[in-house]
Amino acid sequence: MEQQTFAELCREQREQRYETYQAMADLIGVHWSTYYRWEQGESLPRRTETKRFAKRCKVAFEDVKAAVQFQQSRKTDVGGE
């Protein structure tokens, strides 16, 4: 499996469930605009939100954490050039 960013993981989870931003945000316990920013790659979740995302979306915490870290590393790579 190819490594994915947290933004890609968010989109994948929402599309698999055929849900709106609001429905996904409600599931995780965040504002819809927060979920939207995650999916757009504009921001990343805090650790508590990462844990909730994993639990409520039934995704392994290590996979979610890896997606967050991968996205962080891509931003660092782009910003450093």
Characterise this structure:
- The chain has 81 residues and is mainly alpha-helical.
- The chain has helices spanning 6-17, 21-28, 32-40, 47-57, 61-79.
- It is built from five helices and no strands.
- Helix 1 (6-17) packs across helix 3 (32-40), helix 1 crosses helix 5 (61-79) and helix 4 crosses helix 5.
- The chain starts with 5 loop residues before the first helix and ends with a helix.
Average pLDDT confidence is 92
Subunit organisation of the chains: single chain
Low-confidence region ranges: none
Whole-number radius of gyration? Answer: 12 Å
Q: Based on helices, strands and strand pairing, what is the structural class?
A: mainly alpha
SSE topology string: HHHHH
CATH topology term: 434 Repressor (Amino-terminal Domain)
Instruction: Please outline the major beta sheet.
Output: none
Provide a count of the helices: 5
Number of β-strand runs: 0
CATH domain class: Mainly Alpha
Tell me what the CATH architecture is. Orthogonal Bundle
Shape: globular
State the helical fraction: over 70%
- The CATH fourth-level homologous superfamily: lambda repressor-like DNA-binding domains
Number of domains: 1
What is the terminal-to-terminal distance? Answer: 28 Å
List keywords for this structure.
globular; mainly alpha; 73% helix; 81 residues; 5 helices; 434 Repressor (Amino-terminal Domain)
